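Hi, here's the filled form for the chain we discussed.

Project: internal
Contact: R.S.
Residues: 102
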Amino acid sequence: MTYSFRLTRTSDAHSPAHLYRGEVDGQYEVFLILDERSDSICPADSNGVPIPALRMSLSGGSLSGSSQKRDTVRGFPLLAAHLAAEWQRRGQPPQEVRKYFG
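And the returned structure, exactly as it came back:
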């Protein structure tokens, strides 16, 4: 079984919070916010409004939030972990992150 996703930054590179649009397996769309000021990544709606049910720390990778709402964004831990890893590797918010698992 294969799995792929692409996260593309849709917001200005100079703001502290960056909205990403994710396409997962070509089947559904998700939105994430990478917020450098709060050192976190969280799910969002298509307008960039954060959904605070789940959050991942950028620096430590720890996941927090209500377990009853963890499927707010399917695959959030995996998507957020790869986005955080690219942010750490580049030292800045990436324009795009693509991953393929086969």
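Let me know if anything looks off before we file it.
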